[in-house]
Amino acid sequence: MNIGDKAPEILGKDEQGREIRLSDYKGRRLVLYFYPKDNTSGCTAEACSLRDRYSELQGRGYEVVGVSRDSAASHQKFKAKHELPFPLIADVDHVLLEAMGAWGEKSMYGKKTIGTIRTTFIINEEGIIEQIFSGKQVRTKEHASQILDA
Fold first, then answer.
1. Is 43 annotated as catalytic?
2. Into which CATH architecture does domain 10-149 fall?
3. CB neighbour burial string for 8-28, b if at least 16 within 10 angstroms, e if fewer
């Protein structure tokens, strides 16, 4: 997906098994962020950055939805442990990851692997992608600030 593209309507199911749709956020801007794995240092830092400034993000018209390949059960534990106030989509079959271009070859510790490419899409009130942060552009500890300052 690229800037100017319409995001898919069906995003997936969250940690409670509820279907999350793009139209659920009509009239709001959506921070749709893809991360590799629950409870890893970078992913936890990113989630906590968004949690810590969640009310400010909401005040500026944003909603937040996280996505990873982890199971709903893993997401439930991750949310509870870090008191995350936003839904986490369990994309275990990486359908949304692939559709959004957040799945592919990456380099980890000098090795090439296939997996989740840390990516955040800012989607406007009409469902159109207006900004993308990908890979090393995402500063996990300061990700909320990146979004608010963009």
1. yes
2. 3-Layer(aba) Sandwich (3.40)
3. beebbbbbeeeebebeebeee
